[in-house]
User: What shape does this take?
Amino acid sequence: MHVCANQQEISRNRMLELIQKLNEANLAYYRDDRPILTDREYDSLLEELQKLEAETGLILSNSPTQKVSGEILEELTPVRHTRPMLSADKTKSIDDLVRFAGTQSVLLSWKMDGLTLVLRYENGKLKQAITRGRDGIIGEDVTHTVRTFLNVPLLIPTKESFEVRGEGVISWKNFEKVNLNLNGDYTHPRNLAAGSVRKLDASEAKKRMLEFWAFDLVSDELEPYSKRKQLTILKNNGFSVVPYLYLDGRQNKQLLKAAIRAFQPKNFAYPADGVILEYDDIVYGKSLGATGHHENRLIALKWQDELFETHFTGVELATTRTGMVSITGLFEPVNMDGAMVSRAYLHNLDIFDEFQFGIGDTIKVYKSNMIIPQIAENVTMSNTYSLPKNCPCCGKPLVVKKTTGGTRQLFCENPHCTAKLVQKFVHFCEKTRMNIEGLSAGTLEKLIGHGWVHNFGDLYELKQHRDEIIQTEGFGEKSFERLQASIEKSRHCTLAKFIAGLGIPMVGRHAGRDLDRYFHGSWEAFEKAIQDEFDFTQLPDFGQTMHNNLYAWYADEEEAKLWRPLLEKIEFTKENEQMNTNTNNPFYGKTVVATGKLEHYTRDGIQSKLLELGAKPTNSVTKNTDYLIVGEKAGSKLTKAQQLGIQTLTEQDFEDMLAE
Assistant: This one.
């Protein structure tokens, strides 16, 4: 079916809207166990999307109709470009752009800051994706990761072969989310995008929420005479095109200058380090030729960094889970573009030493790309300031080590440093444990690394550090208030969730429920049982190893420093296990195990359902098990059930028995 250009764009926009709704629904259903669409609504939207994909011949990489493989490569393959990828000439003067435009019609667009890529299409399908490479002559094949981008067309209506050049980027919003989960390792979306595209494991790249924004079409067959028409072709084939402004040759100089100044990076959702001015007339642009470095048909304006003078006041150290200690330079607050700024990250010890700081030194600071605060120079260079010598988290002496990249970093080598226990805190805060929203690994690392959190109990006293926390990168007043509300909500918890969150080896959610039921939700009763040398093996599903692990955990003084302060901060509540009043259902009083991936239940969901039915859900198959509910990829539990002659049920069998 032929679709006109205007209708194609309307259809593409509707497809993007449908894809977003469907993907949000999938996350809510499968990850959060919180459906936001009925099955009927979901099926209706999916059917509409499938119809549009068939009509337009366009399929985007994040469409729920597609399953992109998580391919893993051993290495990236070098690929020669069909045409050299030259750069644009650069300037920091707006007047240079005015002179460049002259009387020609031009396009003004963002100079997006990511990793330049070339995508090759043949017969309407994405065939290959290649990085620019250092010299623009030979790049690397990254097709496996580019297929996981949020918006790359995998199938397009145009059958002629062509290449599209563009930028692989991540939005500022997604950068903050992803970087928090990556321990805050990246200082700029550009670095994250470049590192993610070149990953050998496509499934890892998929988590980074990368996007592709096209800016150039390369084709002997399709290339039109107008840059605007070229970009329209790309739009009609489903590509996101770098936002641009068209100015015809009759525009006066002042209007062009005003247009350039209107491109404000703080208002743009993606990182950009300047703007590009390019002739609309492609034939004219090509006639100007090129140097060995850049093409003469376009020019880039790199923003001048405005310098602000202030005074150095010291540093702030923060220990990460690897033991590496980050250094943040502090200075008297200065107004940068309407925001008061008082700190800038110093990437390593070598950079810190180069500045030769002293308290009160006059320094110049700026916002890199008008976004990220940086220290430009130290005017005074008194070199009288010494870095703190002890870990801000545990107080032990710091050491200097060289990284694999050859730079010097500060490290804390104390194996018991709380900062290295981030994963224990992550486990404690998870949804199925204490359910404290907003405390990802990256966020916890910041709180612990700054010395604000040393044990689980400190999480409930964060209000003491409110002013400092909201000034920390990635935080603000609203995010802190949301976090505080979640923390307050978690103060009332069941013994089951509390025990599951403590990280006792082999004593997880199922064991937590068993202990909760046996001790009637009482921490005092549970602790007294340990002190009285209670034999936990008498509880169902508790073996000797779990028994030993409980006692070893309770006797560990270092572990006690983590959890014992928490007891004063929380209140235990009874677990709400509403039994089904119909005791005649076939699962009442039965011991039931579920294994594998179920279609309509999460792992916690099936446990809750069984409890409602009056069944006893357990985690291991024994001779006392009555039923095993089997989902996809069932493993050893199914084998053991077959050996013991235990009745197995599919999810449908389970539902059918309930319906009888």
